[in-house]
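Our consortium's second objective concerns turning raw sequence data into structural hypotheses that experimental partners can test. To show how far this objective has progressed, the report includes one record in full. It was chosen at random from the queue rather than selected for favorable results. The single chain below, 80 residues long, was entered without modification.
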Amino acid sequence: MDDPLVRLFYEPRAPSHYVAKLGPTGWLEGFGWTQAQAFDALAASVMEHPPSSAPPAALASTEALVVWLAEACSGAELAS
């Protein structure tokens, strides 16, 4: 099975937070207190350093990019 394009990690220890990472190595990431904030932060990073795997339509706006990132994520994982 292929690794998901976007991984979302939840860190339950105080202060609890989320980290969204792009790609198998997590070469870009975004931090947030909520899932939405983590995806927004990741989208900002992707806009600065767009990967070749991002479809042009997703790069048209931050909102489109957030949707693409969220759809590429299979759900939050507990951080280890």
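The partners drew two points from this record. The two ends are 21 Å apart (CA to CA). Residues 8 and 24 are 12 Å apart (CA to CA). Both points have been shared with the crystallography group to help prioritize constructs.
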